[in-house]
């Protein structure tokens, strides 16, 4: 028996809308990463991009457990001596709340060209408005 591998022409992608208000960051990110990867579909293939598009709104209203607001750090290194910058989760939620969800999901995807292709299907917005009404996204309750 041969293993079934879906063709790119056979794939169907949907658009989903996720409201991040009062959702725990890690649990939300795992569900989004699963949908982006396409693992929820019966025709999943690990070497292909057969996931769906995800629109996340209210990114600034997510919740975290424990002491993560003050203890979780995000690092940026320029490559130069003394070029390490660190930011707490609390500061990131104030300055760039979209990046918090983006980085959480990005860390759960493959570190390859496939991962870059998958993360491009994630759209994150701080408010309730988004420019993807024409795609008629379905509301995904997580």
List the helices and strands and how they pair.
Blueprint: E1 15-19, H1 25-37, E2 53-57, H2 68-71, E3 73-77, E4 84-88, H3 89-95, H4 97-106, H5 113-119, E5 122-124, E6 138-139
Parallel strand pairs: 1-2, 1-6, 2-5
Antiparallel strand pairs: 3-4
Helix pairs in contact: 1-4, 3-4
Structure characteristics:
Ribosomal Protein L13p, Chain: A; two-stranded antiparallel sheet; alpha/beta; 29% helix; 18% strand; 142 residues; 5 helices; four-stranded parallel β-sheet; 6 strands
What does this entry look like structurally?
This protein has a four-stranded parallel sheet with strand order 5-2-1-6, with helices on one face. Strands 3-4 form a two-stranded antiparallel sheet. It is 29% helix and 18% strand. The chain has 142 residues and is α/β, with parallel strands linked by helices. It has helices at residues 25-37, 68-71, 89-95, 97-106, 113-119, and strands spanning 15-19, 53-57, 73-77, 84-88, 122-124, 138-139. It contains five helices and six strands. The radius of gyration is 17 Å and the shape is globular. It has one domain (13-65, 93-139): Ribosomal Protein L13p, Chain: A, CATH 3.90.1180.10.
């Amino acid at each position: 028996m041969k293993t079934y591998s879906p063709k790119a022409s056979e794939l169907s992608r949907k658009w989903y809308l996720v409201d991040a208000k009062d959702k725990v960051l890690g649990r939300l990110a795992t569900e989004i990463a699963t949908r982006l990867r396409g693992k929820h579909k019966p025709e999943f293939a690990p070497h292909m991009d057969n996931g769906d598009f995800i629109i996340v709104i209210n990114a600034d209203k997510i919740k975290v457990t424990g002491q993560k607001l003050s203890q979780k750090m995000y690092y940026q290194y320029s490559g130069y001596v003394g070029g390490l910058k660190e930011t707490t989760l609390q500061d990131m939620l104030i300055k760039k709340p979209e990046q918090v969800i983006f980085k959480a999901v990005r860390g759960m995807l493959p570190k390859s060209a496939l991962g870059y292709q998958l993360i491009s299907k994630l759209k994150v917005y701080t408010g309730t408005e988004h420019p993807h009404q024409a795609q008629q996204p379905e509301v995904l309750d997580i």
